[in-house]
Each structure stands twice: as C-alpha cells, then as structure tokens.
C-alpha cells in the first residue's frame, strides 16, 4: 500500500495509506545525487494487472512510480490475499535490506516507473550520510504506518476503516494540489477489501450507506466525491455512525 503526513495531525494517525505515500521521501526533497540517478535511470512501463516483481524475486532494483498506481500484497499459505500498501506517483517500491523482494507488486493500471539498481542506491547511501538518514527515517515511518494500519483493521468498524481510507486519499490530493473532494480509485473493491480486512460486500454496502447519508457521492464506480468532510472525519474517529 504509503507513504503520509495526512493523518499525522489527527486522531486518525496513519491508518489508510502506504508509508511511502504518507511519509516517504518525495523526489523533490531527495538528495540531488538520487534525483540525478533517477533522471538518467531506466524507464519501465508495466501494463495493468501485470507484476513489477513478486515475493521471492531477487531484489535487483528500487522503483519510483512516475504514473499509475501499484498494489503491494502478500499471499497467505491458504491462498488468501492481504493488501499491504498502495503506491502512487512519487512513491518508492522495493526498498529494504533483504536480498529478495518480500511483497508482490502489481500494477493497478498502466504504470510508468523509474528504476535504480539496489546496489547503486546502497553505495550512494554508504557514501552520503544524509541520504542514508533519509532512507532510515522513511523506512521507520513506513513501519509506524504499518503498525497504525494493523490497529485500524483490528479495532475499527467497517465505516471507520473506509472513512480513514477515503480521508487519507483526500489529504494526499490536497498536498499535491489536486481537488481533495474528488477521489479517483484506481483499485477495485476487492483491492480495498483486502487492504482494510473486509469483504467486497461490506465495502459496497458501506459505500452505499455513506452515499445515502450524503457523506459522499459515487459519480462512477472509480470516482468518489466527498460531500461532507466534517462528518467523514467524525466517522473515521469513531465519533459518529451511519
């Protein structure tokens, strides 16, 4: 799935989006050496629903999403899927110190990536303490976001989980200069359900309830308009119900 500052200033804390989307090192604030390597790095284009990498593959590259959206997930031994994160433009995927990728990364729509060899990034971090610190801080925030997400799917109701998810996407839009009230969902209901620990039916039913309560409007199946942000925030905080 992150990762963001969106939820850090409220009781919602990082409950919905991936740590790089919420807290990561955006390209604009990364050290110039990293920007230079990325600007000259290889470009990879991946079709919708194709995998960028799968768990167990050798970790050869770190990728920055340039356009599109990516679903990061694990498959349980019994075949069930748990979506861990969603990655959006500006987010990095494939970071870590392991020799293999630990997650599956699947394009939700056509995705364009910039790639940097993992070994190159490691050497850059060893030579540049400021880059190493930024990567360490970003991964620490990613871990904190994962812990908050675990709390969300373990303790919050379906309406609270979905409200947190929509608010995180809304606040991400606001930070990037886009309309915070208009949310495009590149992921399916199944993806959202597997991220929030709910069933597809519960996601659809809860969206319908939010629409009936005039909290949101579903202009299309992939387009959500927030009508009542204040009530959505109260729902996410467990201070209201529908």
What does this structure look like?
The chain has 242 residues and is of the alpha+beta class. Helix content is 40%, strand content 22%. It folds into two domains: 19-151, Jelly Rolls (Sandwich); 156-236, Winged helix-like DNA-binding domain superfamily/Winged helix DNA-binding domain (Arc Repressor Mutant, subunit A), CATH 1.10.10.10. The protein has helices at residues 19-23, 32-39, 118-127, 129-155, 158-175, 189-196, 200-212, 229-236; strands at 42-46, 51-53, 61-67, 70-75, 81-87, 92-93, 104-107, 111-117, 182-184, 216-220, 223-226. The two termini are 27 Å apart. Residues 1-31 have low confidence and may be disordered.
Question: What is shown here, in short?
Answer:
The chain is built from eight helices and eleven strands.
